[in-house]
Design brief:
The chain has a four-stranded mixed sheet with strand order 2-1-3-4, with helices on one face. The chain folds into two domains: 76 residues, Glutaredoxin; 133 residues, Up-down Bundle (Glutathione S-transferase Yfyf (Class Pi), Chain A, domain 2). The protein has eight helices and four strands; from the N terminus they run βαβαββαααααα. With 221 residues, it is mostly helical. Helix content is 56%, strand content 5%. The structure holds glutathione.
């Protein structure tokens, strides 16, 4: 199995959590043309015509794009080490946290990611102010629903941790370049989650991998 991905993007990180947790062997392929790399995506567009990362390539050559769909596929194809709770309400909480992150938080961060690739003196301060306000609102939504027992939902690893860990790391480490809202201020549940989730060895590994990629990318720009 191959995971076409970058370590900087939060979406493949969500998939790596599943692969690590379930002990599935895979090869990492890092396609060109992402995160400011001026090279064309080239052959990767034949692998994944959507042109985004991640894409999971099975041993028989079939390719699946879209992180959430990949995670659901892996959950069904490799049911050992379940990453979904059994209780329907808890399952809904896993999906809710991922949905809030994808729809509200990631969408609010995207314009700032794009802006960060341009010279700071061209940055639209009003746009930055609006995006930071939306990011703060999305973090408030997460504060409402995130669990308080060491994991995003319940007392063990779920797909919601795969969603939250990389995006919170980006908010924490990357957002300060825009003088963003202090992530943990007035958000004690999120603060506790962030403090405790690093105790999980798989999440600690994801944090380390993302932090290394972030430092490399900042050194490059
Ligand atoms: N909905 C997609 C989003 C994936 C996505 O947008 N990935 C970004 C990287 S963070 C990407 O590939 N963007 C296209 C590009 O950078 O050219 C998923 O969940 O897999």
């Amino acid at each position: 199995m191959k995971l076409h991905q970058t370590y900087l993007s939060p979406f493949p990180t969500r998939v790596r959590l599943v692969l690590y947790a379930k002990g599935i062997e895979f090869e990492v392929v890092e396609p060109p043309g992402f995160h400011g790399d001026p090279n064309a995506k080239g052959d990767y567009l034949n692998v994944n015509p959507i042109g985004r990362v991640p894409a999971l390539e099975l041993d028989d050559g079939k390719v699946l794009p879209e992180s959430e769909v990949i995670c659901e596929y892996l959950e069904e194809a490799y049911p050992d080490v379940p990453l979904m709770p059994e209780d329907p309400w808890a399952r809904a909480q896993v999906r809710l946290l991922s949905r809030i992150s994808d729809i509200y938080l990631v969408m609010a961060m995207l314009p700032l990611f794009n802006m960060a690739a341009t010279p700071p003196k061209t940055w639209d301060q009003e746009k930055i102010r609006r995006q930071l306000s939306e990011i703060g609102e999305a973090l408030d939504f997460l504060e409402e629903y995130v669990g308080d027992k060491g994991y995003a939902v319940g007392t063990s690893l779920t797909h919601a941790d795969g969603t939250l860990v990389p995006i919170l790391l980006l908010v924490d480490e990357w957002l300060p370049i825009f003088r963003g809202p202090e992530l943990w201020q007035r958000r004690p549940k999120l603060e506790r989650y962030w403090r405790e989730i690093g105790n999980d060895p798989i999440c600690a590994r994801l944090i380390e991998e993302t932090r290394t990629a972030l430092q490399q990318s900042m050194g490059r720009t």
